[in-house]
Design a protein that fits this description.
The chain is mainly beta and 124 residues long. The chain is 0% helix and 59% strand.
């Protein structure tokens, strides 16, 4: 099975920085795209940033220029460097990965996997 485990959330003042990490583990054959999503209280989950296996990135407009997504393929880990944080960045941040595993008959199965979420609070 596959697990995604996030770390790095916490409380930070406006203008501060945090770095989130998400490590994928288990019976992984390969990983395609990875990304970060967030969900604020009373709001729907939204895409924050994604990165392909080749390193191409995509960001939601509200975080462009402030957040940077990166990945270490040797460690099956994706990062989110968050700078110039604002109160409106407060949310639970979830890691996502499109990951393949090898099934019993040798077939490759691709599924979306999610982490358990990590709280980011931006407040003075």
């Amino acid at each position: 099975q596959v697990q995604l485990v996030e770390s790095g959330g916490g409380l930070v003042q406006p203008g501060g920085s945090l770095r989130l990490s998400c490590a994928a583990s288990g019976s992984i054959f390969s990983i395609n795209s990875m990304g970060w999503y967030r969900q604020a209280p009373g709001k729907e989950r939204e895409l924050v940033a994604t990165i392909t296996g080749g390193g191409s990135t995509n960001y939601v407009g509200s975080v462009k220029g402030r957040f940077t997504i990166s990945r270490d393929n040797t460690k099956n880990t994706v990062y989110l460097q968050m700078n110039s944080l604002k109160p409106e960045d407060t949310a639970v941040y979830y890691c996502n990965g499109y990951i393949s595993t090898v099934q019993n008959m040798g077939d490759i199965s691709w599924l979306d996997y999610w982490g358990q979420g990590t709280q980011v609070t931006v407040s003075s």
